Amino acid sequence: MATDAAVCSGDEKTAHLKRLPSASDPEGGLSLFRADLLDYDAMAAAIAGCQGVFHVATPREMLGPAITGTKNVLEAASAAKVRRVVVVSSMVTVEINPKNWPKDKIKDESCWSDKEFCRNNEDWYSVAKITSEEVALEYGRQIGLDVVTINPALVLGPLLQPIRSLHNVVNADAGGPDRMRDKLWHIVDVRDVADALLLLYEAPGASGRHICAPHFVTARDLLRLLKRMYPGYPCINEESISDMDKPAPMTSDKLRKLGWSCRPLEETIADTAEFCEQAGFLGDLQGAPCRFPPVYNKI
C-alpha cells in the first residue's frame, strides 16, 4: 500500500492498518510505502511487482495534482504490467446536472455530470473527480491498460480508526445548518465498497464504469428512519427540511450483474451509529439536535 507522505507522517497514521488481519504475515502481509502521487518514481517503486492496483486518492483542493497523480499511477501500473487497475471515482461524476439526460430517467454508467456546470459553481472536487475518471478511462484505452472505475455513493459504516468523518449520518455538530433540502441521497456501506473493489479486480467481465449506489432515500425519510431507530437521540424537526424536486435515482445493476450484493440500509446505519458511540462522537450532544453535516447542503 502506497500512502501519501504528506498525510502519513508517523506510526499513529498507519497503526490501524498494521492491526489488520494477516498484516504481519511474512508471506503476503502488508507493506507500506511513503509515496507522492506527483512523483512517478515513488509510485513506480510502490507498484513494482504488483498484479493489480487500486487507486483511491484524489486531492480535494487541486485539479492538476489529481490528473497528474492518476496518470503517474497508470503509467507505473503499465510499466509493471499489472493485470488491472481499479480507480475509485465518485457518484459526483454521474449525478450533477447531466447534459441531455431527462430528470425522470434512471442514471446508469452512460450518464456523466456536467463538468462546466461544476466548474462555474467552483465545485473543484467534482471537477477533479470527473476529469480524473475521464483521464483514467481514456488513458487506459490509449496505452492498452485494463482500467475499470467504481462510482460509490455516500459512504457510511464503521471506520478502521476513530476519526470523525464529514459523511457520518449521525452528526452532533451544533454548528450544522438549521434547514436542510429534502435531497435524494444515495448511500453505500464502506464494507460493501471494499467487496465491490475486490470483485471489480477479479471479475473477467468487469469493464468501464460501475455505479455503487444501492440505497437511495430522501433527507426527510432518512430523518424518520433515524428517529425510529434511535428515539432517544435529539434530532432536527421535519419542518426544518425544505421540499425540492428530485431527479430519478442511479442504478447499480451493472455491478450487481457481476455478482455484487450489499447490506440493508438499516444495518449500515446501525453499525455507523454504534461506531460513533464507541468512538465518543455522540457523548457531547448535551441536548443539541443532531444535524446532517453542512456539506449536505452544498452538494
UniProtKB/TrEMBL annotation:
Q: Has the keyword Oxidoreductase been applied to this entry?
A: yes
For this UniProt entry, the molecular function terms from Gene Ontology, in alphabetical order, are: oxidoreductase activity, acting on the CH-OH group of donors, NAD or NADP as acceptor
Q: Which keywords does the record carry?
A: Oxidoreductase
Q: Which Pfam families match?
A: Epimerase
Q: Where is the NAD-dependent epimerase/dehydratase domain?
A: 17-206
Q: Which PANTHER family match?
A: NAD DEPENDENT EPIMERASE/DEHYDRATASE, NAD(P)-BINDING ROSSMANN-FOLD SUPERFAMILY PROTEIN
Q: Per its record, how is this protein called by name?
A: NAD-dependent epimerase/dehydratase domain-containing protein
To which species is this protein native? Digitaria exilis
